[in-house]
């Protein structure tokens, strides 16, 4: 049995910061309802239902126009829940798939037509292929211009993976600032590797999930050096994500309005806010 995790705070607070038109949440999941989209048996956690209608209501409250739904690991490689979620608001939503090495060209083409633009690999959660399948999956999605979403548990994994990731020739997107912990900081090998990958121009990074790495409460000020580190390196390759509905949290749940306000405090320059929230995701995910 997996431990049931918390759902998102249902009382979303309207943030003090007003995001610009076209702002995008580049990292979220939808789960279930399990009666229609069953969870796989081999999973790392059991979330409560978090359907797309609930997510869109949250986005409306915090003032975010667009979003990228990343296929949740509890649904494995059956991307139906994400596919159908995008279909409910196709101008507003894009997707990242979880695919196996046996994925067919026909299926990738079907997902691409619906708005999927990347494939995720992970060493964190069951249900998402590991980097054992990197080269095979990358070769299949590369002709469609998809990027590889890199979800590592520890930042030092990125250092070991970097040569293989670069050799794929695919664009890369590193989740959650490579999960660099507070005690590692900007001088850690993992963070240095991340900066090296960003320098190539073929790598992107998400500001997301930093509250999980923090030693403080809102607004998680101790995470600011990591956030500023990636922005100072490549402001044109940085994205922001809420990580709604915040899976794998069991004891405490933050408010999504606070997450956006924390971003605004980390990034007080409005031109950079606009670049990260609007321009960068529009380029990567082909929003019109």
Note the overall shape.
Answer: globular
CATH architecture descriptor: Alpha-Beta Barrel
* Count of extended strands: 8
Secondary structure tally, helices: 10
How would you characterize the overall build of this protein?
With 288 residues, the protein is an alpha/beta fold. It has one domain (24-285): TIM Barrel (Alpha-Beta Barrel). Helix content is 36%, strand content 13%. It has an eight-stranded parallel beta sheet. Helix 6 (189-199) links the parallel strand 6 and strand 7 (203-207). The radius of gyration is 17 Å and the shape is globular. The mean pLDDT is 97.
Descriptive tags:
single chain, 288 residues, alpha/beta, TIM Barrel, 36% helix, 13% strand
Brief overview:
With 288 residues, this protein is of the alpha/beta class. The chain has helices at 52-62, 80-88, 105-114, 134-141, 155-167, 189-199, 210-213, 224-233, 256-266, 270-285; strands at residues 24-28, 66-70, 93-97, 116-122, 147-151, 172-174, 203-207, 238-240. The model has no long low-confidence stretch (mean pLDDT 97).
